[in-house]
Write a structure and sequence with these properties.
Helix content is 38%, strand content 12%. Strand 2, helix 2 and strand 3 form a beta-alpha-beta unit. Helix 2 packs parallel to helix 8. The chain is globular, with a radius of gyration of 17 Å. The protein starts with a helix and ends in a 6-residue tail after the last helix. It is an alpha/beta fold and 257 residues long.
Length: 257
């Protein structure tokens, strides 16, 4: 069966939907927020970066990057569990090495992906350097969580078509995002909880993957994405959206022949 025929059935099979309240129509989505040119190809498989779940249904997928510290992790996990919302976490290998207990906690109920080992800018790396980042990250994540990462997300959202092909050659589908909430910038970066919620809302559209972060980057230990998460979930449901899990989707996505 061709991929064009398989994707609708596959998407329907893997969506894990949390209850969604009937309500207002979705707001229009923002333009893709990642740096670099979009890569063309089959959604989520070889030669492309998955930014949406391939579906026309009103669902969104929440994803979180973990690269700094443990701030906000317990709160995010508690909210996701209470609201029965699936999510996917992208860990750097360095984070997994420094915070193995936190990495394990993230992987207990949610799939984990690789966010490289040391968070470099991939467009300037050779294949040997890319491979080293991916291999070291996978080892660290397995050591901390007992699980192998099921997908890859580029640091800074920066990548080229070559980078995608190289990561595919290592066995990873690439998962990126429609929009980033910018909560990682914190109050020192002029961001508020309300701004985080509004940025998430502007991405609401069928299948949209939204990028958030756990951990903090400032002396205040601010975790705006964790603070905003309950309101984001409530707003999505008020707009008629449920939540899609990505784990089974990326596990069934072939990137090598």
């Amino acid at each position: 069966m061709s991929w064009s025929r398989r994707w609708p059935a596959l998407a329907a099979a893997v969506l894990l939907l949390a209850p969604a309240a009937p309500g207002a129509a979705a707001r229009s989505a923002a333009a893709p927020g990642a740096a670099g040119e979009p890569v063309t190809g089959r959604p989520g498989c070889a030669g492309t970066a998955l930014r949406r779940v391939p579906t026309d249904r009103k669902v969104i997928a929440l994803t979180f990057n973990a690269a700094w510290n443990e701030d906000g992790i317990a709160r995010v996990l508690a909210v996701l569990r209470k609201e029965r919302v699936p999510a996917m976490f992208f860990l750097t290998g360095d984070f997994a090495d420094r915070h193995p207990e936190a990495a394990r906690a993230l992987a207990v109920r949610h799939p984990v992906g690789s966010h490289s080992y040391s968070h470099p800018r991939f467009p300037g790396l050779s294949f040997r350097e890319e491979r080293r980042e991916a291999v070291l990250a996978a080892r660290a994540i397995r050591r901390a969580t007992g699980r192998t990462p099921v997908a890859f997300r580029f640091p800074y959202g920066e990548f080229t078509e070559r980078n995608v092909r190289d990561v595919n050659a290592l066995g990873y589908p690439v998962v990126e995002w429609v929009d980033d909430t910018a909560g990682w910038r914190g109050p020192d970066g002029g961001v508020t909880v309300d701004m985080v919620v509004r940025r998430a809302e502007r991405a609401f559209s069928p299948g949209a993957i939204i990028q958030m972060h756990v951990g903090s980057t400032d002396a205040r230990h601010s975790v705006l994405d964790a603070d905003a998460l309950p309101e984001i979930i409530a707003s999505a449901r008020a707009h008629g959206y449920g939540f899609a899990g990505l784990g089974r989707l990326v596990r069934r996505c072939r990137v090598r022949g």
